[in-house]
């Protein structure tokens, strides 16, 4: 039997595992971990191992464009030409009447870099709006801002191989054992081989990640800054700081040290609910480490003080000089497979391509010249939550949603539903009819999925890899890049006539020349021939750059890193609203991905947990007279959810957990966790506050 094989990259999380996908004469697909890939060395987690079933089962696929002229009408099949003519006519008419900022694009960290680049070029360069944002805003925008503020640019300084060289790893607000499993397997192997390596985990839940932890800091949600500052104070008091590094490589920051000196350790321990001796032990582990790393994800980022949390954690590295050496540095994990690629090409309302700065007039001019347009809009565009606010208020008239499912994934999702109903025109470009957002579309465009198109992605350690096709898209589905170029041409824009998607990548690559993110040494051809590379890769023979800042020359104007002066330390937790004393936190399950449009199709992945369950400490459940598996109603200021109770001694008393994945089940919207979640956002990053919502709970 003849078999065709391609090397590609897993389409789920930011770990970026290499996959060998094979197809036989009968069209049967199989996937295995690529043994030569530097990230996973042949390993795959449960989600990656089952990707062939997701691709093979096409029962949910969107196969042809569909349109309706009025929301009360059913969607009807149309030709691509008719769909494009309508999209262009409606966008043109809205823009002519209300200006370019009356339209917006909401895209995804699962888009390929080339697709991200094109939609940014289209919106910022040609339509003339910065209203292009992404679900990465919900994922890691707080880390982007903290890196930029402290290191001078949005730059992850470390690699996975550093995890195997560290002798103290502090995991904060992340459960990599479930959510980034393959890199956690590497950490576990490192700990097994080197039992003296210290692992500290800070999390209100005792997750599987804690299984190899030497110290679990079970803090009260929202008190992260207090905890990190308390550790910093203890490092300071015990002389475990690097005065030479602070003097030579950081900008003077009196305010930060003043804040540290004001800290009363005993009070801080009480505020964050962590025993004082554990704070002291954490400082001892960190301060005694030759190489110290931190690793974090949504527990820090998804907060109304997300940037401060990131800043307070990165401060620990500047205080101890633990950056730019093997096994040392701050490591923000990306949740999605190409959140990093999106950041590279300026895929957010506040960014420009190749790490150029939107607020910088000469950067805007440079990009405008590159694209052959007069100018780029100066003011930042609407971010994810702002976009839906603006749709609801009528300021934004049309939205184009690509590869994301906001009616399940956004916070305070009832408002998102109201906003989409109010919008004049909604385009949904997706692969799956399971995406609940399709229900609100005026125009549905069927897209090609994983293994059906070509393009690049960048994983959490800045590693760029090429994804190659093995199958044709079903029906009339087309690659997202084709769809975007077709729309641009129908809008009358020049500059979107590429022979193939590798030309799009080449165009982006030229834009990076001479920058800190220079990838002029890369092309689709090189990636196909030689495998993946970590940027910067400035020449065709450059091997890539695993670690940055070895010379301690940061990307700030002064070349010095900056401490982050935190202010939320003094604010403490907000008071709960009347009758809503429990703190709800949300997150992923081991075997599910986002809103389950793909993993939800695989029965063996549902075996791990097939329905949303409310994790609650048995003592809290007893007080509420809730039995295990009993149906409960959970209410916040924003909405209601019903879920069955799951007793768990692993969760802190006073805190409850619901998984993020489920939308409507059995046609009821009451299983959707984001009915409940807080719609507040971080003032710097505009990232929502998913990890902290006060709720009440009662038997139903
Ligand atoms: Fe895919 Fe992430 Fe699992 Fe690797 S760890 S196989 S990238 S889901």
UniProtKB/TrEMBL annotation:
Keywords: 4Fe-4S, FAD, Flavoprotein, Iron, Iron-sulfur, Metal-binding, Molybdenum, Nitrate assimilation, Oxidoreductase. It comes from the Bacteria. One of its GO terms (biological process) is nitrate assimilation. Residues 3-59 form the 4Fe-4S Mo/W bis-MGD-type domain. GO terms for molecular function: 4 iron, 4 sulfur cluster binding; metal ion binding; molybdopterin cofactor binding; oxidoreductase activity. Its cofactor is Mo-bis(molybdopterin guanine dinucleotide); [4Fe-4S] cluster; FAD. One of its GO terms (cellular component) is membrane. Belongs to the prokaryotic molybdopterin-containing oxidoreductase family. NasA/NapA/NarB subfamily. This is Molybdopterin-dependent oxidoreductase.
């Amino acid at each position: 039997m003849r078999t065709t094989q391609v090397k590609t990259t897993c389409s789920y999380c930011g770990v970026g595992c290499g996959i060998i996908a094979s197809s036989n004469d009968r069209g049967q697909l199989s996937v295995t971990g690529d043994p030569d890939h530097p990230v996973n060395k042949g390993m795959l987690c449960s989600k990656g191992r089952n990707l062939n079933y997701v691709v093979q089962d096409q029962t949910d696929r969107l196969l042809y464009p569909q349109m309706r002229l009025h929301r009360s009408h059913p969607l009807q099949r149309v030709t691509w030409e008719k769909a494009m003519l309508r999209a262009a006519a409606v966008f043109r008419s809205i823009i002519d009447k209300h200006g370019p900022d009356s339209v917006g694009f909401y895209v995804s960290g699962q888009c390929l870099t080339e697709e991200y680049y094109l939609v940014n070029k289209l919106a910022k360069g040609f339509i003339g709006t910065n209203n292009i944002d992404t679900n990465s805003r919900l994922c890691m925008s707080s880390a982007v801002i903290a890196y930029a503020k402290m290191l001078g640019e949005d730059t992850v300084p470390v690699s996975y191989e550093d995890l195997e060289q560290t002798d103290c790893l502090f995991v904060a607000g992340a459960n990599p054992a479930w959510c980034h499993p393959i890199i956690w397997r590497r950490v576990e192997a490192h700990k097994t081989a080197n039992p003296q390596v210290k692992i500290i985990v800070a999390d209100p839940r005792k997750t599987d990640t804690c299984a190899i932890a030497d110290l679990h800091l079970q803090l009260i949600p929202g008190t992260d800054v207090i905890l990190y500052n308390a550790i910093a104070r203890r490092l300071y008091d015990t002389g475990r700081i690097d005065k030479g590094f602070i003097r030579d490589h950081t900008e003077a920051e009196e305010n930060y040290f003043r804040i540290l000196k004001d800290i009363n350790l005993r009070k801080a321990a009480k505020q964050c609910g962590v025993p004082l001796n554990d704070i002291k032990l954490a400082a001892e582990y960190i301060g005694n480490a030759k190489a110290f790393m931190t690793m974090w994800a949504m527990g820090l980022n998804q907060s109304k003080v997300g940037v401060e949390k990131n800043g307070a954690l990165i401060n620990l590295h500047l205080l101890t000089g633990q950056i730019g050496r093997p096994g040392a540095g701050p490591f923000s994990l990306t949740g999605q497979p190409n959140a990093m690629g999106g950041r590279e090409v300026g895929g957010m309302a506040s960014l420009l391509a190749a790490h150029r700065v939107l607020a910088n007039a000469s950067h805007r001019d440079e990009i405008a010249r590159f694209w052959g347009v007069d100018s780029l809009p100066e003011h930042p565009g609407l971010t994810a939550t702002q976009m839906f606010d603006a749709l609801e208020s009528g300021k934004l008239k049309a939205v184009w949603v690509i590869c994301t499912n906001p009616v399940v994934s956004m916070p305070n999702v009832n408002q998102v539903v109201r906003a989409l109903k109010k919008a004049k025109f909604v385009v949904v470009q997706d692969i799956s009819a399971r995406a609940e957002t399709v229900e609100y579309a005026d125009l549905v465009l069927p897209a090609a999925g994983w293994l059906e198109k070509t393009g690049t992605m960048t994983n959490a350690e800045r590693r760029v890899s090429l994804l190659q096709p093995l199958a044709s898209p079903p029906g009339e589905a087309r690659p997202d890049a084709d769809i975007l170029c077709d729309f641009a041409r129908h809008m009358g824009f020049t500059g979107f006539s590429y022979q193939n998607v590798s030309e799009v990548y080449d165009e982006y690559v030229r834009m990076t020349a001479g920058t800190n993110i220079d990838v002029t040494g890369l092309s689709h051809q090189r990636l196909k021939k030689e495998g993946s590379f970590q940027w910067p890769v400035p020449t065709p023979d450059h091997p890539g750059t695993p670690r940055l800042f070895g010379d301690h020359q940061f990307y700030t104007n002064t070349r010095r890193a900056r401490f982050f002066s935190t202010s939320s330390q003094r604010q403490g937790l907000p008071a709960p609203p009347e009758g809503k004393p429990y703190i709800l936190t949300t997150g992923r399950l081991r075997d599910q991905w986002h809103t389950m449009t793909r993993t939800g199709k695989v029965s063996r992945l549902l075996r791990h947990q097939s329905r949303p369950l409310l994790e609650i400490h048995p003592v809290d459940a007893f007080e509420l007279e809730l039995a295990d598996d009993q149906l409960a109603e959970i209410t916040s200021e924003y909405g209601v959810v019903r879920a069955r109770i799951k007793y768990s001694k692993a969760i802190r008393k006073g805190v409850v957990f619901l998984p993020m994945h489920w939308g409507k089940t059995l046609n009821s919207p009451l299983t959707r966790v984001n009915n409940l979640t807080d719609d507040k956002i971080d003032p710097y990053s505009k990232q929502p506050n998913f990890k902290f919502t006060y709720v009440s709970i009662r038997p139903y």
